[in-house]
Design brief:
This protein has 114 residues and is mostly beta strands. Helix content is 9%, strand content 32%. It is elongated and about 45 Å long.
C-alpha cells in the first residue's frame, strides 16, 4: 500500500498526501514545484511537518536550502538556513546567533540559549 497519494496541479506542481490529507512522502519531496512556479524547488514533508533526515527539507531554485526535522528548523553540522547572502543556525527550532560551526557547537554545549 502506498504511503501517499500523488496529485498534479494545473501548473505541473506535484503534491503528495497521506490518508489524513497531510503533505507526506517517505521516498522523496512531498511538493515538487515545476520550473515556472517559484522558479522550481522541492519541499519534504512527513505527516504534515517539514522533515528530512538526510538533507535539506526545502530547496529553492536560487540555491537557498532549509534544514527541518519534525517541523522545526534544525541542523547540527551547519546552518539550517543557507542563502547566498546569509546563513542562520538553528537547534531544535531555536535560532543560535553565531558565525561558524565551532562557535555553534560551543553554544549548544553551554546551553546558554535555553
Amino acid at each position: 500500500m502506498p504511503d501517499s497519494t500523488r496529485c498534479v496541479a494545473l501548473d505541473g506542481t506535484v503534491h503528495y498526501y497521506n490518508s489524513k490529507g497531510q503533505l507526506h512522502r517517505e521516498d522523496g519531496p512531498a511538493i515538487e514545484y515545476c520550473k515556472s512556479e517559484l522558479g522550481g524547488g522541492n519541499r519534504w514533508f512527513f505527516n504534515g511537518k517539514k522533515h528530512r533526515i538526510d538533507g535539506p527539507a526545502v530547496t529553492h531554485a536560487d540555491g537557498t536550502t532549509e534544514w527541518w526535522l519534525d517541523g522545526q528548523r534544525h541542523r547540527i553540522d551547519g546552518p539550517a538556513f543557507e542563502h547566498p547572502d546569509k546563513n542562520m543556525w538553528f537547534y531544535k527550532g531555536k535560532q543560535i546567533y553565531c558565525d561558524n560551526l565551532k562557535e555553534f557547537h560551543r553554544l549548544i554545549k553551554l546551553g546558554a540559549f535555553w
